[in-house]
Amino acid sequence: MTLVDKRILRVTQALVLAALAPIGWMLLQYLMGIDVYATIRENNLVYWYMFVGSALAFVSFGFYVGTNEMHLESLAITDEATELHNERFFKQRLPEEAARAARLRQHFSLIYISLDHFADINSLYGRGVGNSALKLIANAISGVARKDEIIARVGEAEFVVLLTDCSQGQANIAAARFLKCISDVVFQVEKGKQISITASIGLISSETNNSDEWQLYAFAETAMYRARRDGRNQVAAYNID
């Protein structure tokens, strides 16, 4: 169920409860031997007041509950530091998107991003600076990503991008886009001093490898380590060799 559905569901339930209020009152009168139809004719405004009043009360409460449920669900799938999706969300979506791609006979690609020497920033300048840098970099990645590209933070300085309906060639172009946008970010670490950071990026596409989605994820990470080993600040595509 989507976050929007939650709020709609609670309001719908509230309207049902509001309708039950006058119905329940009529049932009680019937059980007491009172002529319900005569009572309705004589006091129809009372029943309308009962329904409208109950509807306003229940709908307001239902909307409040639904909104809070949406907020809690959003927190459960959002990384607090970057406001990107978190690893939990990614682990839910990857099998779904892989199944969707198979059903539509499409390819999907994975890009694994690791920030170079990020631990040094935390060590030298503190976690406050590190968190600020993460937020800036996350914004930069989101800023150049396309609407159908799903981004998640999966580690201290690691991000994964899931590209739906995407070939190997398109993934290469996207990875180069992310590499550049990260290196373009400049952030202040102390008064009068600014630095930038680079990334090692690995990628793989289901177009060139028919393994399952989790194996592809592992291959993308392996390719990232190769980019790191070969000098960092570059993109490496996974290959069997």
Explain what you see.
This protein has two domains: 3-75; 87-237, Alpha-Beta Plaits (2-Layer Sandwich), CATH 3.30.70. Helices cover 61% and strands 16% of the residues. The protein contains eight helices and seven strands; from the N terminus they run ααααβααββαβββαβ. α1 runs antiparallel to α3 and α2 (36-42) crosses α3 (44-76). It is elongated, with a radius of gyration of 27 Å.
Topology, pairings included?
Elements: H1 3-31, H2 36-42, H3 44-76, H4 87-104, E1 109-115, H5 118-125, H6 127-144, E2 149-153, E3 158-163, H7 168-183, E4 186-190, E5 193-196, E6 199-205, H8 213-229, E7 234-237
Parallel strand pairs: 6-7
Antiparallel strand pairs: 1-3, 1-6, 2-3, 4-5
Helical run tally: 8
- Helix-and-strand structural type: alpha+beta
Helix content: 55-70%
- Average pLDDT, rounded to a whole number, is 85
Overall geometric form: elongated
- How is the biggest beta sheet arranged? 5 strands, mixed
